[in-house]
Every structure is written in C-alpha cells, then in structure tokens.
Design brief:
Length: 763
C-alpha cells in the first residue's frame, strides 16, 4: 500500500514547518460491533429455535429478540462455507471448492484464498474496527499449520489482530492442539483440572474484549467466534451429558416426527412441507435391539450435552457484551457451516480413527464402552439415524447438496438496528450474503482495493432488506451448489439437484466412477416443497433442462470446473511433493509436528535414537518421542527409569516392549528399532548404547493414520491423553534430551481411499 502524501509543511527549521500525521482509520458514525458465531456440524433442526428439544436458551434468546432465516444455505462443508462467510464470494471463487486439506491443481481448488478476495476482518480493520478470531480456523492447508510454515493464510495474516484457537477440522475438546496468534501453545489446564475447549474459547473471547475496552472504550470490534462444537468428538463435561439421560430413548424416528411438528407450529416451513422419508440405509429405531437403542441414545445424549454446553459458553460471551453496555450496539450473527454430519457411520463411532483404519467398533464393544462416550478416552460421533434427525425435515446431509447438507440455521440480532422481534424470514439466502449484509448494516462500502490489491466483485447479496420486512421479494434468486461432484442449482424458487457418490460411502446403488453425463438430476419446486419430496423432473423436463443449463453457466463463471469426485486425487497429487526423507531429526521442547508433514512410518522398518544426558542421582522419566494420543499412536519413553515403547493400536489394544534394566547416569544413546514383516506387524527392540535391553513382537501396527484431532509428533513430551498407561501426559523428559533421530526404511505405505475418509471425517 502506498503511503499517503505528507499533508504538512516542511521548512528549513521547525519555525517554518507544520507537522502532520496520516489519518487513522475511522469507523462510520455509530458503527456497531459485530459478533459472528459459527457453529460446526449443527443441522437445521438441532437448535431449540429451529424445532429441537435440545436446550439452547442463549441462542433461542437471540432468535426471540431478532430474526431467524428459515431458508439460509451453506456449501455443505466446513472450509468452503467459512470462506464464503468471511469473503462474500463463492467457495470456488475463493479456491476453496473443497476443504483446505484436499486441494488440487485447479484454480477453484487450490486451497488458498486469493488476496483479491478481501476478508471481512481486513475490510472492517480499514474502517477502524479491531478484529479478533477465537476458535476453529480451517482456512489453511494442513501442510502449512506447523511452526516452520508461512503464516499468510493464518488469521493474523488475513486481518485479524489476535487469534486463539485451532487449525484443521476438529480437535480433542479436553486436550486440544492450540495456537495463539502465530505460534503453538499448550492448553492452560489439563482434563483432570476441569479443562474444556469451549470454556477456554469463551474465556479468551471475554479477555480480548476486556483488553480492548481497557484501552479503547469506543473502538468497534469484530469478534469471529467459531466453536469446535458440535463437530466430533462429541465431548462435554459429564454433568452436561447426564442432564440428557433418557431424553432420547424414544429414538430418532420419534424425535424427528416431534421436531417436524414443532417446526411447522413455529412457522419455519412452507405450508404443505412434507417430512422426507427415512432413507433405506438408516435402520428404523424399532428394529434395533434394546441394548443398541441404549447405546444410540447415549450417542445423542453426548451430542446434546455438547451443544447445550456450547450454548452456555456463547451465553457467557453475550453476557460480557451486555456488561460492557454494548448489547444494543452489537450485531450478532449465528450460523452453522453445514448440515449434520454422517461421518459416524451406521452404528456410530467411539473412535473415528478406527473407521479410517478399517476397524470400526462393533455392537459388543460399543455396549461395553458406553460409559466412555463423551469423555477424554473416546472420540465419539453419532450414527446416521441422528444425522438424519438433525437435518429434519430434509434429505441427506453434510458433504451433499440436497437440503440436508446445505440448509442451516442463521440468526441475526441487533436491538438498535432491527425492529423485528422473533421474526422468521423465508427468502432464500446463502453464506456469501453475510458479508455484504454486515457491511450494509454498518454503513461500509466494499473496498475497491485492500493493501494495494484490486478487489474482485462480491458475489453475495445483502439480506438487510428483509430483516424488517417479511414480505419483501427475495433478491438472491440464483445460487449454484457443488461438492465432490454432487451438484445443485436454486433458481427462482426451483431447485435441480443430483447426488454423486464418492469413496466407499453408501451409494444408493450408484457407481462412483460413472460419467458425470450419466448423473440423474432431480427437480423440486422448493418454494413449496422445501424438503425435496416431490421430484418433478419427469413432469417438467423443460424446467429441468433450463436449470441444468443455469448450473453450467454458474459453474463456468465461478470456477467450479473441472468436476471431480475422485476421493484420492488430492492425496496422490499434492501441491507439495511427499516428504520421503530417510532421516528426520527432532529437537526437544518444540511444537507438535503434524503427521501430514513428518515421517510416514506405517508398515515400515524404522529406528528411533535419542541422545540423552542423565545426571548422577537422577532417575530419568518422561517421553523421548511420541505420535498420537490414547486414541491411537505410539510412544518411546522412559518409565520408572527404564526404557519402554508403547504401540497403541487405535485405542483398542496396547502392545508394550519394556526393558528391565535402568538407564544409568551419564551420556547415552537410547534407541528403539522396529523390523516389519511386511504385514503390519513386526519385532520391536529397545537398545541402551547399542545393546538390546528389551524385545517383543508387535502384532498389529496402524495402517492408515496414527493421530487424530490435530495430532502429530512431539519430542520430549506427549500431547495427551497419554498413549500408554502408568503416566499422565505431557510427561516431559526429566533429564537432558539433546535430540532424537528417526530413520525410516523402505517405500512409504499409503492407502489413499482410507486416507481420504480420514481427512473427510475431520471436516
């Protein structure tokens, strides 16, 4: 950006000179604050104010004091929707046609948002706002989320002055992988001390606003508050889960019927809307065995407790805004990023990494471990039946562009600026409309350039016009959808949509490899049939052809092409070449190294060597090198003064190789070697200064991915919950650890389709 010309006078001395300062950015008179709350994987029907019986009193209060959009839409997936919200451009225009972790080499899918598409934080910052981001980001490719990465796609590189939260699609709610501004930080407390991420995020948001007001009493703020809730893992403090005990025993079919009735009574749905039928791949609740009903009800109790707990933490932030005396002058927008998630599978998941690695928990194990659900040792995600219910009355779910994937809650609250109290609006709106709406309400015009970069046109259409006028004609009349080859087009009250299967998920009997020209398009008059129950394609072929042509026009305009539903394309042709170094060196005390950018050890022989100094009189303890958590991984450590290696197979089995000899004082090389037999098993040996001091068979190693929820390699400490037993993470090494070397042998093992499902389950 060019510096402004000096506006004063410079003479020979100060007597003949006039000082001048460049003007500071100034907000428009009476500019409101903005609080944008982004929930994760919360379906259309899961907030109380959208028909749910889950307790969300704080969000319901916003709805009662403002406006609910009953026809609001997203992109069907996380990163793309967040790109839309923060830029006002379509997700392919933002190069975010998929999640940031699955970029491919076409402009609509690069995974890095161009500077020509300014962020809301950048726009508001140029008008005197202070922008803070708290919570989930997921707009940075995974291979740029480590400490050696560039920071230009991180929040503080896109206009936010402060950030506290996490990269990626998800994180453990009791032991998260956290970042502050541009560096990694540990959680401030441990699970045993009562820590939970959503509470921490609320604490940090309140702290940031308090720090601002301690210095700048009048500067407007933009707080982007993006919870990890309610993405898996559905983890919450036990009392929040227990309050729902028994509440879902009637099952998803009955819950869905009751929710639908409440939605109709509230006026959320057009007259005549039908409840879409239960799909054939979701079992009827009545057909489940009693023990399985209890497990499935418990899954939903965990989700509900997680959501209610998040609502309470959002309420704490709202209460602080009231305490500041700024309630009336703060615009609050609440949205979810996509429909309810189906990544838990038909039965639900106690540990999503089990699904990735082809070892889902069976009914017997789920019954036996029911009490672990919602706690630190589980990474639970509910089954498809609850996903279907969470999207009532719609069809399908997250990742797909039928209404169940793209119809979401949106609440707008601003006491000073919106007269409506408890209003419901049925005009079509989309995530790209949030930015232009906020700018219009704040009295700010979109900039022609930001930082010297000319800005692209904003794709969204402000919906400020409808906030106080329920009868206003809809202005956003055409909107395309596309996600992994599934396509849709909303146009003048009609919608054409086609489902394209990917990977090994349910296919409806469809072939994922079939040409796109073979896809069957459906047609719905969504102005009357919002739940897409009455397919009119055969009755109105001309209308269908018209809409399909509109889809192609929009696709060409916004960078959707080429269509690609191949699940492994991004993983097999990454932007950066795979790291196939034979040697990796780690230094103690550093931040976690994401699994994506470190050694691929799966089914490969390897050796870990740690150089240590043990003082006289010290019995060494602690982790030397580790990967993962209690949910799966491995750890090379010293426990009770003796070497140990733990292979944690997906949280299901632990295989331990232990030494009986203590590590004596002095300088030593402590080592572990693994020799594979080529079938995901092999022999592990512990060595002290080259001498074998322990040996054992490891009958099963992880085939696809070790870590979960933002995990990776740690040197001199563990992320936690602990990989092994008998110690508590982070369990830092108590003697001097100089460095650790990891040597790998043989070709890297890859299972691309399973890796794709692993990446997708974290979104």
């Amino acid at each position: 950006m060019r510096e402004p010309d000096f506006g004063g006078v410079i003479g020979p001395t100060w007597r003949e000179s006039t000082p001048w300062w460049p003007p500071e950015p100034q907000p428009p008179p009476g500019a409101p604050n903005l609080l944008l709350v982004v929930l994760d994987d919360v379906g259309y029907a899961q907030l109380g104010c959208y028909g749910s019986d889950i307790d969300t009193p704080n969000l319901d209060r916003l709805a009662a004091g403002g406006v609910r959009l009953a026809n609001f839409h997203t992109t069907a997936l996380c990163s793309p929707t967040r790109a839309c919200l923060l830029t006002g451009r379509n997700h392919h225009s933002c190069s975010m046609g998929r999640i940031a972790d699955l970029a491919v080499g076409y402009p609509g899918y690069w995974g890095r948002i161009p500077r020509t598409h300014g962020f809301l934080s950048e726009i508001l910052g140029a008008h005197g706002y202070l922008a803070h981001a708290v919570g989930k980001w997921h707009l940075t490719p995974e291979d740029e989320t480590h400490m050696a990465a560039p920071r230009d796609t991180w929040p503080c590189g896109r206009g936010f002055q402060r950030w506290y939260g996490f990269h990626g699609g998800e994180t453990h709610q009791f032991v998260p992988t956290l970042f502050q501004d541009n560096h990694a930080v540990p959680p401030p407390r441990r699970p045993e001390d009562g820590y939970h991420l959503t509470e921490d995020l609320a604490d940090r948001a309140i702290r940031y606003l308090g720090e601002l007001r301690s210095v700048e009493p009048d500067k407007p703020f933009f707080l982007y508050f993006a919870t990890g809730a309610c993405h898996a893992p559905h983890q919450a403090p036990p009392p929040w889960i227990e309050r729902y005990h028994g509440r879902f025993d009637a099952g998803w079919d009955a819950w869905r019927e009751a929710t639908f009735a409440r939605q109709k009574a509230a006026g959320l749905l057009p007259a005549g809307t039908q409840l879409s039928p239960r799909p054939p791949w979701v079992p009827a609740w009545a057909d489940l065995e009693p023990e399985d009903r209890r497990v499935n009800a418990r899954f939903m109790e965990c989700f509900a407790g997680f959501l209610s707990h998040a609502d309470a933490q959002i309420g704490r932030v709202l209460a602080f805004v009231e305490e500041l005396g700024e309630w009336d002058d703060t615009i609050v927008v609440v949205v979810s990023d996509n429909g309810a998630s189906a990544e838990g599978g038909m039965r639900g998941s106690i540990n999503d990494s089990r699904l990735w690695n082809g070892l889902p928990a069976g009914r017997g194990e789920l019954r036996a471990r029911i009490d672990e659900l919602g706690g630190p040792s589980a990474h639970n995600n509910y089954p498809w039946g609850w996903t279907m219910a969470g999207n009532t009355p719609f069809r399908r779910w997250k990742r797909e562009v039928h209404e169940g994937g793209v119809a979401d809650p949106c609440i707008v609250h601003w006491p000073r600026g919106i007269a409506s109290r408890g209003g419901i609006r049925h005009q079509f709106a989309h995530a790209i409309d949030v930015l232009p709406t906020v700018l219009e309400l704040a009295g700010i015009d979109p900039p022609e350039e930001i930082g010297g970069v000319a800005q692209s046109p904003i794709d969204g259409q402000s919906f400020a016009y409808l906030l106080d006028d329920a009868s206003a004609a809809a202005r956003h009349t055409t909107q395309y959808f596309e996600m992994f080859g599934s396509r849709g087009i909303h146009h003048d009250g009609w919608k054409a949509v086609t489902f394209k299967p990917i990977g090994q998920m349910y296919h409806d009997g469809l072939d994922p490899d079939a040409p796109f020209d073979d896809d069957v398009w459906e047609l719905y008059h969504v102005a009357e049939d919002l739940s897409e129950c009455d397919d009119l394609a055969l009755r109105h072929p001309e209308k269908l052809a018209e809409l399909v042509e509109v889809w192609w026009r929009e696709a060409r305009q916004f960078g959707v092409l080429p269509l690609d539903n191949r699940p492994v394309a991004a993983l097999m042709a990454p932007r950066r070449p795979f790291d196939d170094r034979p040697r990796y060196v780690f230094w103690p005390g550093g931040a976690l190294v994401p699994e994506r950018v470190t050694a691929n050890m799966r089914n490969r022989s390897h050796a870990i060597r740690a150089e240590v100094d043990v003082p006289d009189g010290v019995a060494p303890e602690g982790v030397l090198l580790a990967m993962g958590t209690a949910l799966g991984g491995w750890s090379f450590l010293v426990l009770d003064g003796r070497l140990r290696y733990v292979n944690n197979y997906l949280g299901k089995d632990r295989h331990v190789v232990a030494s009986t000899e203590p590590v004596p004082p002095g300088r030593h090389e402590l080592a572990f070697t693994f020799v594979t037999n080529g079938d995901f098993r092999g022999t592990g040996r512990l060595l002290l200064d080259g001498q074998v001091v322990g040996e054992g068979e490891i009958p099963q190693v992880t085939p696809v991915r070790f870590s979960i929820s933002g995990g990776g390699v740690t040197c001199g400490w563990e992320q936690g919950p602990a990989v092994g037993e008998g110690y508590t993470a982070p369990f830092p090494f108590t003697a001097t650890l100089r460095r650790v070397t990891l040597d790998v042998d043989g070709r890297p093992h890859r299972e691309p389709e399973a890796e794709f499902e692993a990446v997708m389950s974290e979104q």
